[in-house]
Automatic annotation (TrEMBL):
Keywords: Dioxygenase, Oxidoreductase. Residues 65-93 form the Intradiol ring-cleavage dioxygenases domain. It comes from Streptomyces alanosinicus. It holds the Pfam family Dioxygenase_C. Belongs to the intradiol ring-cleavage dioxygenase family. This is Protocatechuate 3,4-dioxygenase subunit beta. The keyword Oxidoreductase applies. GO terms for biological process: 3,4-dihydroxybenzoate catabolic process. One of its GO terms (molecular function) is ferric iron binding. Gene3D superfamilies: Aromatic compound dioxygenase.
Amino acid sequence: MTESAIGASSPGVAARLPRRPLVGVRDPEAAELWGPVFGDQDVGALDADLTQRYPGRPHGECIAVTGRITDRQGAPVRRQLVEIWQANASGRYAHQADRGPGPLDPHFTGVGRCLTDDQGQYRFITVKPGAYPWHTDFNAWRPAHIHFSLFGTAFTQRTVTQMYFPGDPLLAHDPFFQAVTDARARARLVATYDHELSVPGRALGYRWDIVLDGPAATPRETDA
């Protein structure tokens, strides 16, 4: 029986159904946790270059992020869909749930994707994300990071993880990074600056390889 039917047939009796739509609980950190929704379109030429989608150039330091996706034997994972999402250079996600203090960048969405090649390599051109306050503790900040999502070749290989940058002083204070208790595993979450990967006059290069399974697997978010 609907709410209107109850009200009409039982005057003077309080309806037990709500008269207004449910109020959603909005998590202020939802932009940190939700990945992009791309749909089923083919991967386009500009999907891996997050700096070339608008007439204007996004703010911040342009970077190239490259690496290999391998299994536990070191074999390349070919034609793997790699998805990323990140904050902009001011530490703000282009997401309605993010109400952080950093300004939005009209020339940067913070989401991208690509397919690995026959050697298991991926490559993105983007901007280095900024740190931002994390409202779970006093003076808590999240270090610069990029979220990665990969499906692998089997259900058990599904990986959602985060890439960090070398020399970031906030790593020592980050609860997500420090939740990985094995120091060697934590080190696998940090990219390496690689000058040979830099694009002259445009972008600084970082290498970050991902191992999907096995003893040397890249830690997943669920491992923290």
